[in-house]
Amino acid sequence: MKKIFTAPKIIGTLLLVINIYWLYLFADLYYLYHFTNARFPYMIPDYVLFIHIVISIIGIYLGTKVFLKKLPPFRWAAIDILLIAMGLVLENFIMN
């Protein structure tokens, strides 16, 4: 009997969901900053937004490769989490 839920599929789906949300979050922030009249107490610089967007696109790519079982799941999940953490550290370093 073939397993439906395997580790690469579960971890790949998790990576995809996290990175699609990450992409939506920062693309929406960019949209709100430039195309609405909303006022913000502070704004994240555009280059930091683009770094987060690039990190999320890389994460989506890695998530699809893990889902299709072309990459080992646990190592690439750790690398993706490290990329997201580096983006957050960069953002906090720049904002302070």
Short summary:
With 96 residues, the protein is an all-alpha fold. The chain has helices at residues 7-35, 46-67, 73-95.
Extended strand count: 0
Shape: elongated
Largest sheet: none
- Percent helix: over 70%
Structural class: mainly alpha
Through-space gap between termini: 55 Å
Mean pLDDT: 90
- Report strand %: under 5%
> Which ranges are low-confidence, i.e. pLDDT below 50, for 5 or more consecutive residues?
none
Number of helices: 3
Helix and strand run: HHH
Radius of gyration: 16 Å
Characterise the protein shown here.
This protein has 96 residues and is mainly alpha-helical. Helices cover 77% and strands 0% of the residues. It is built from 3 helices and no strands. α1 runs antiparallel to α2. The longest helix is centred in the first third of the chain and has 29 residues. The model has no long low-confidence stretch (mean pLDDT 90).
SSE layout and pairing:
Layout: H1 7-35, H2 46-67, H3 73-95
Helix pairs in contact: 1-2, 1-3, 2-3
Tags for this model:
96 residues; mainly alpha; 3 helices
